[in-house]
Design the sequence.
């Protein structure tokens, strides 16, 4: 006899298959599963997940002439057992700061072919359903933007679509290729009206990182994953030629904090007041005045009192669309999504723009309470039901 959890899993799978068979909407619900937080909640809480992306494999691995292993914190088969049948399991390559392997691969037709063929070998060996390319900042503005100026990376912009095209040619057609791409327009150096037409044919969808939209390079406080800043990101890609249905909106299962400047005006207006200098002007190195931690993590000791105040007195900004708190006692700006803020993004962003899916970084980061995951799932299921009802009404007409 099937258990209650197994019944929920199979009902969710049946609904997904039925929607696909009738041409109904299939909102992607994508979860990154990371080596830092490799935990998965009980089956019912992930029954609506459509894709899992395991993060990360190092990009340099695929430049070896004969790689004989594919190092990852888990296996595809072990991951499949934790999700509903039919869930796509993908492998992310790269990540923040992991750029050199991609640059080495992109330089020539020969290096691109080696890189792509090794990816195809890895996908075959692991049984993955595809790959997520996390060369997040081709053309510049990555972790080394101070020590390796953007002009020296300009050649990467035309090379990036060539690399993706070569990967697409090497992978069998059913296999998926997605790309994690910047959420700030200032970082979209390789994602322009000139380059995107050559990128899109290689990609199944784009994971737009609509989080970290305030980071240590910024001089004033802002929401790191706000509604208005998320809309600006989506609209920038759309204006450059990306259909909204090819985009996934990113959600952050973590909280961010930033020190603010003394006499920065935060006591008068917390949003848009001056932040402290957070990175070395010469090297771009982190000065330790900003950071992030997952909901699953312990709060850093020096921030415990300030975080407690943020959780107790945080407010939602109706204009910018984000939860925030400025701690005047310690001069710390906090920015995060509550479950309620996540639900607000469905009518305000997901449905308003008609994107094709959502994703979260990352699944295990929300343990052990899973309240942000539950909110995201609720938003996804509500969207699916509303779209299904709209389809029925159109059919009757």
Sequence:
């Amino acid at each position: 006899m099937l258990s209650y959890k197994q019944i929920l899993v199979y009902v969710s799978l049946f609904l997904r298959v039925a929607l696909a068979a009738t041409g109904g909407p299939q909102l992607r619900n994508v979860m990154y599963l990371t080596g830092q937080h490799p935990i998965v909640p009980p089956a019912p809480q992930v029954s609506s997940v459509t894709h899992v992306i395991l993060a990360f494999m190092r990009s340099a691995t695929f430049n070896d002439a004969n790689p004989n292993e594919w190092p990852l914190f888990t296996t595809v088969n072990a991951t499949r057992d934790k999700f509903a049948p039919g869930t796509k399991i993908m492998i992310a390559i790269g990540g923040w700061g992991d750029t050199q392997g991609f640059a080495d691969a992109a330089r020539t037709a020969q290096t691109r072919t080696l890189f792509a063929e090794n990816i195809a070998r890895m996908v075959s060996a692991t049984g993955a359903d595809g790959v997520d390319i996390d060369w997040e900042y081709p053309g510049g503005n990555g972790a080394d933007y101070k020590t390796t100026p953007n002009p020296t990376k300009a050649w990467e912009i035309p090379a990036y679509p060539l690399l993706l095209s070569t990967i697409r040619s090497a992978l069998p057609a059913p296999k998926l290729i997605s790309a994690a791409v910047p959420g700030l327009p200032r970082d979209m150096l390789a994602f322009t009206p000139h380059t995107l037409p050559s990128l899109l044919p290689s990609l199944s969808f784009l994971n737009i990182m609509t989080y970290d939209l305030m980071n240590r390079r910024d001089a004033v406080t802002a929401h790191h994953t706000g509604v208005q800043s998320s809309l600006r990101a989506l609209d920038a890609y759309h204006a450059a030629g990306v259909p909204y249905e090819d985009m996934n909106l990113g959600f952050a299962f973590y909280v961010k904090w930033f020190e603010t400047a003394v006499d920065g005006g935060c006591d008068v207006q917390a949003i848009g007041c001056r932040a402290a200098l957070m990175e070395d002007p010469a090297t771009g190195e982190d000065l330790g005045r900003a950071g992030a931690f997952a909901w699953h993590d312990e709060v850093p000791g020096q921030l415990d009192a300030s975080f407690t105040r943020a959780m107790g007195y945080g407010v939602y900004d109706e204009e910018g669309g984000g939860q925030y708190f400025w701690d005047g006692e310690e001069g710390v700006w906090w920015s995060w999504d509550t479950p309620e803020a996540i639900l607000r993004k469905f009518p305000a962003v997901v449905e308003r723009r008609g994107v094709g899916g959502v994703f979260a970084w990352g699944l295990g980061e929300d343990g052990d309470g899973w309240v942000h995951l539950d909110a995201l799932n609720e938003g996804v299921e509500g969207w699916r039901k509303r779209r299904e009802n709209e389809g029925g009404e159109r059919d009757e007409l």
Q: What stands out?
A: Residues 309 and 366 are 20 Å apart (CA to CA). The longest helix spans residues 371-396. The first strand starts at residue 28 and ends at 34. The two ends are 43 Å apart (CA to CA).
